[in-house]
Amino acid sequence: MNKKDLTPQFNWDAETGIATCILTDGKSVYVGSAKCCHEDQDMQNEKTGCEIALMRAEINYFQSIKDNELIPALNAIKGIQFSLNQCETDSKSKSIVQKKIHKIENDLAVVRYLIIEKEQSLTDYIAAKEIFYKQIRKNRKKDKFN
Q1: 22-55 b/e with 16+ CB inside 10 Å = b?
Q2: Are 78 and 68 in contact (CB under 8 A)?
Q3: What contacts 1, CB < 8 A, 6 or more positions away?
Q4: 68-95, pLDDT tens digit by residue?
Q5: Which residues are 20's β-sheet partners?
């Protein structure tokens, strides 16, 4: 799980108002996209669309880590723990398995936190964008009448 290896590739289609971000980690591809809504077409720009697309791609990346790596690993190691508890095994083996479970649970908690934080950042970004756009429209309207 090394996010530093991800390099975003952006695509912006000004005609459709669609921005796409593609992240690859060497084995998987994570895509995020953003489409300019109809009421914001007067403000449509590449930077905003690409920023939203990037955040969505990062959320997809973290979701994939959680769903395809950490949860299956946790289930597998808990299966080993169950098997060890069914037979007489030395406590060293049980201790190693318990430490591994603890590490995966901690990693899972971090990834869940990152997902929540990234989703909140996206929500905040879109809300701030809306406030900014409303202010610009208000100023434009005021300038028309002066």
Answers
A1: bbebeeeebebebbbeeebeeebeeebbbbbbbb
A2: no
A3: 65, 69, 107, 111
A4: 999 999 999 999 999 888 887 778 888 8
A5: 11, 33
Whether 41 has a pLDDT exceeding 80, the answer reads: no
Domain spans of the chain, in order of start? 3-145
Distances (CA, A) of 38 to 48, 90, 114, 141: 15, 65, 31, 19
User: Rounded to an integer, what distance in angstroms lies between the CA atom of residue 79 and that of residue 98?
Assistant: 12
Q: What DSSP element (H or E) covers 32?
A: strand 29-35
Quick check: 39 pLDDT over 80? Answer: no
Q: Three-class SS of residue 18?
A: strand
User: Mean of the per-residue pLDDT values for the chain?
Assistant: 90
Residue 106 has pLDDT above 90, yes or no: yes
Over its C-alpha atoms, the chain yields an Rg (Å, rounded) of 23
